[in-house]
Design goal:
The chain has 14 helices and no strands. The protein is an all-alpha fold. It is a multi-pass membrane protein.
Length: 291
């Protein structure tokens, strides 16, 4: 979880460094990640052959939602700051919690909800001084909200699918599907596939290796062991890491309230994870006596 949080914190930095269209960044990010994963996919061919038509449809839908997430969220960084965009992205657990309750009847303990509230409050402080009322900032905020909703759907579908298939196979198929969606989008919009300087290609590779392999793939793997709500709570750590990196590498200034918000995020995250871990431990203890 810690490795994943650090890795995804670099995502917004790489995106800010790039001058390429966000749809091209997203396409090559997912394409290069898929190519890195392919050599290790042979043991999962049997599992792929056993997938039902409904599974393939859900995988395609999850890939579309992932592509939509990248398109909207990455696009938001062209209009607003790293702190603002990642602060809004941290509302993802709210979408996840509601979706998990509606579709999976998954309940959340009161203490965990308190931790979630504290963490989200901290995220609000991080972006408080950075959210403006200009048309550009508003557009960036709306794009980030749309991207947050899309990735929440992606994670909820993933939670259902990784029960029946290896997380590695799930990640590979979904990344390929999302890359294809981006390719079709770029083709329709007449966006160039190849005419970019070497610096951009380096950024595409960094986006694939750092936040995707060590971020999204790790989070997909975690879905086998913890709920989508818990995985999404870890993303609350991204605004902290991303804001610090934006300060160091992009010169984006942070106010005292934003530093205080970072501490609240980590506190709330700790409360939530501790409550979830305690609940899991109690369940495991109860199983032998129940049997």
């Amino acid at each position: 979880m810690l490795i994943g949080i650090i890795a995804i914190s670099f995502s917004s930095i790489f995106i800010k460094w790039s001058a390429a269209p966000v749809s091209v960044q997203g396409m090559y990010r997912l394409l290069f990640t898929s190519l890195l994963m392919l050599p290790f996919a042979r043991p999962y061919t049997g599992a792929a052959a056993a997938l039902r038509a409904r599974d393939w449809l859900l995988l395609l839908f999850s890939g579309c939602m992932l592509a939509l997430h990248f398109l909207l969220w990455m696009g938001s960084l062209s209009y607003t700051s790293v702190a603002s965009s990642t602060m809004i992205m941290a509302l993802e657990p709210v979408f996840i919690m509601l979706g998990a309750y509606i579709f999976y009847k998954e309940k959340t303990a009161a203490a965990a909800m308190l931790g979630m509230a504290v963490a989200i409050g901290g995220v609000v402080l991080i972006g408080w001084g950075d959210i403006g009322i200009s048309p550009d900032n508003l557009k960036g905020d709306l794009l980030s909200i749309g991207g947050t909703a899309a990735v929440a759907v992606h994670l909820l579908v993933g939670q259902k699918l990784v029960i029946r298939m290896p997380s590695y196979l799930y990640s590979l198929i979904v990344f390929v599907a999302a890359a294809v969606v981006f390719a079709v989008y770029n083709l329709v919009m007449g966006i160039s596939f190849f005419h970019y300087p070497s610096k951009e290609w380096g950024i595409f590779v960094l986006l694939a290796v750092v936040p995707t392999v060590f971020g999204h793939i790790l989070f997909n793997w975690l879905l086998q062991y913890v709920s989508a709500t818990t995985v999404s709570m870890n993303i609350l750590g991204e605004p902290v890491g991303a804001s610090i990196l934006a300060f160091l590498l992009l010169g984006e200034q942070l106010k005292v309230l934003q530093w205080a918000g970072g501490l609240l995020v980590m506190l709330g995250l700790g409360v939530y994870l501790y409550t979830g871990r305690k609940k899991t431990a109690q369940s495991e203890t109860a199983l032998p006596s129940a049997s």
